């Protein structure tokens, strides 16, 4: 792969099922060239997680995902001991010396790898997805920064474990809290926005065989119009694909052919009672009137 050729990156991502804009393709090429983590920020549903999956396809490597949440601690992200097997081993080795038993039960075969440890021990560099890092607390963020800086971890019973390979690291954030300056400085950064209609139409066609370019563009323009309404939960790309699949399943070739079906299937896009109420039939007809 030509590291700094963003057109080549975009083409390869497209072949892997992800339609990237030029800025994202540039960020990914620089990520590979500089060997830096890539922080993707944006609203939920814009396709941040899908970038990591496409990268794993692009590099033909494993995708390892760490899902962040409030209260996430180091053991859940790094490693744990298999306590049940350790207890069984202790019972089986009764009568042996304490040091000998300790050496046995704190060996590799009782170690449970969690995502961060697994990622640095792969024979081929994986894609490590640290998803929704903004949901973890600041203490865990500081620990994560240390791991991403050194790519080695310390296990008291085994010592320091260095990286076999350096993973391709993608972090995502929905912006629910401000990330530290230290983490931002460590990473390359790209803001992932909702796609423009032309690109979203290409996304639809790449995922749904048999859907025409005209209908795909109509769907993308309609979704764009809906996103501009005062909604509690703005539909993401996944919802767009669900809606497109539903319309294709109804054998609809033009949104104007069946406005009632268009309105009824908006349940694929609108996921709260308030939003369903806001986008009534009159609003649907108004928005549909703007779609060529």
Automatic annotation (TrEMBL):
Database matches in Gene3D superfamilies? P-loop containing nucleotide triphosphate hydrolases
Give the SUPFAM superfamilies listed for this entry. Answer: P-loop containing nucleoside triphosphate hydrolases
Q: Which residues form the AAA+ ATPase domain?
A: 34-198
InterPro entries, A to Z: AAA+_ATPase, ATPase_dyneun-rel_AAA, CbbQ/NirQ/NorQ/GpvN, P-loop_NTPase
Question: What Pfam family is a match, any one?
Answer: AAA_5
Q: Mind listing the GO molecular function terms for this protein? A: ATP binding; ATP hydrolysis activity
Family annotation (CDD domains): AAA
- Which protein is depicted? MoxR family ATPase
What species is this protein from? Rhizobium terricola
């Amino acid at each position: 792969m030509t590291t700094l050729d963003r057109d080549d990156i975009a083409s390869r991502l497209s072949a892997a099922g992800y339609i990237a804009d030029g800025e994202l393709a540039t960020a990914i090429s620089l990520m590979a060239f500089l060997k830096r983590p890539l922080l993707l920020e944006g609203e939920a549903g814009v396709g941040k997680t899908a970038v990591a999956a496409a990268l794993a396809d692009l590099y033909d490597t494993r995708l390892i995902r760490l899902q962040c949440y409030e209260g996430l601690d180091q053991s859940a992200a790094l490693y744990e001991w298999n306590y049940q097997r350790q207890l069984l081993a202790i019972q089986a080795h009764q009568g042996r010396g304490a040091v000998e038993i300790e050496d046995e039960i704190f060996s590799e075969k009782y170690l449970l790898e969690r995502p961060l440890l697994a990622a640095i021990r792969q024979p081929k560099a994986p894609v490590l997805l640290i998803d929704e890092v903004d949901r973890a607390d600041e203490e865990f963020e500081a620990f994560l920064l240390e791991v991403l800086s050194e790519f080695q971890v310390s296990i008291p019973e085994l010592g320091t474990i260095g990286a076999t390979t350096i993973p391709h690291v993608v972090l995502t954030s929905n912006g629910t809290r401000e990330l530290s300056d230290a983490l931002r400085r460590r990473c390359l950064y790209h803001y992932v926005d909702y796609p423009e209609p032309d690109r979203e139409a290409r996304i639809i066609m790449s995922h749904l065989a048999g859907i025409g370019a005209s209908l795909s563009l109509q769907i993308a323009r309609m979704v764009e119009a809906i996103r501009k309404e005062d909604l509690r939960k703005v539909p993401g790309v996944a919802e767009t694909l669900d809606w497109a699949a539903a319309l294709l399943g109804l054998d609809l070739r033009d949104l104007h052919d069946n406005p009632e079906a268009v309105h009824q299937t908006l349940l694929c896009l609108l996921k709260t009672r308030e939003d369903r109420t806001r986008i009534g039939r009159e609003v649907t007809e108004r928005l549909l009137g703007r779609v060529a």
